[in-house]
Amino acid sequence: MSPLDRDRLREALALAQQSIGLSDPNPRVGCVIGLSDGRVLARGFTQAAGAAHAEVAALADARRAGIDLRGATAWVTLEPCAHHGRTPPCCDALVEAGIARVVVGIGDPFPLVAGRGIERLRAAGIVVDMADDDTARACRELNVGFHSRVERGRPWVRMKIAASLDGRTALPDGTSQWITGEAARADGHAWRRRCGAVLSGIGTVLEDDPRLDVRLVPAARQPLRVVVDSHLMTPTAARVLAPPGEVLIYAAAEEAARAEALRACGAEIAWLPGAHGKVDLPAMIADLARRGVNELHVEAGHKLNASLLREGLVDELLVYLAPVLLGDGREMAALGNLGALADARRWVFTDLARVGGDVRLMARASADR
User: Fold this and answer.
1) Rounded to a whole number, what is the distance in angstroms from the first to the last CA of the chain?
2) Residue 185 — left, alpha, or beta (φ > 0 → left; ψ -120 to 50 → alpha)?
């Protein structure tokens, strides 16, 4: 890759950021079309599912300006699609426009693409070059949930926790609003906006009555709100049931009357019984992937957090630490006692940032944990 290629792919990545909270379940993709002398002719990013992909959006941008794209280069963060889905193949549109070269950030793992897009472009005489490792990693990171769902059959699960310096998420009576400041809460909503679904447990619903929606930052759509409620104890007046947005409740015990009342409030009920009368959490994660959820954002209490962690279902921790000490109270996750220090679950820090008066830590599950 040339320095120009890297610059244009960075610009395409910035464009793809505008697809966050818009394109799901499709990946976030950006496209820049220009010439080798540095001139940019068109730009685009993926729109809502069923609307234009990034390449088609960029081509439309050029058409509106009356620009001839023959001989131009397209820099795109993800391999152009080569199949008919809700929209025609982007490869065909690039060929028809006379594009001479395509620089691809990363291959598309979706089985109907998975290299076929690159092959199709090359068969049409278009030069295709792939990004270097650093740029490819950035392209993958933008769509970590899409890759997770396609490659592993499960969404990328990010657990958000707000805690004190001594690791308390609530007082002994459950009071938790607010440990962190306004800036951290707004940042948390920006992470909610990234996801296809926000998940919590019945304990949090009963104690905090959360909405689980995106309010503190602009959002093109509301994520699916998911409640793990084994015995359907969600009150019909719970704020999580109020519009806008859809609500999905996973239950283990078939409580017909309660299910009917919750359905009347607009909720969907999914039965996934597991051991000990609880919801089967691995089956729930797999079901959310089948529903097209790329990233799952967890905002739950210490009990559900612990269950998800014990099952190995959490990929990433998003932890906000406030500069306060609370003493006795609820822990981040009720994991119980360890037999030995060697039994501790291992994580790798990936980011540290100040957010207002608080600190945001990010960590990912270690491969050798």
Assistant:
1) 36
2) alpha
Determine whether 23 is exposed, middle or buried from the number of CB atoms within 10 Å of its CB (0-12, 13-18, 19+).
buried
Model confidence over 32-73: pLDDT tens digits?
Answer: 999 999 999 999 999 998 888 999 999 999 999 999 999 999
Question: Do the Cβ atoms of 195 and 226 come closer than 8 Å?
Answer: no
Contact 337, 169 (CB under 8 A): no
Q: Which residues pair with 144 in a beta bridge?
A: none
User: Which strands make up the sheet holding 30-34, listed edge to edge?
Assistant: 40-45, 30-34, 73-76, 101-104, 127-130
What is the value of pTM for the model shown?
0.92
By the 8 A CB rule, do 124 and 154 touch? no
What is the set of active-site residues? 55
Report pLDDT digits (tens) over 242-300: 998 999 999 998 889 999 999 999 999 999 999 999 999 999 999 999 999 999 999 99
User: Residue 298: is it exposed, middle or buried by C-beta count within 10 angstroms (0-12/13-18/19+)?
Assistant: buried
Contact 184, 162 (CB under 8 A): yes
Residue 104 backbone phi and psi in degrees, to 5: -105, 130
Contact (Cβ atoms closer than 8 angstroms) between residue 200 and residue 279? no
Number of H helices, E strands in the chain: 11, 16
- What are 220's two structure tokens? 């093109």
Determine how many CB atoms are found less than 10 A away from the CB of residue 269.
Answer: 19
Residue 73 CA to its chain's centroid (Å): 30
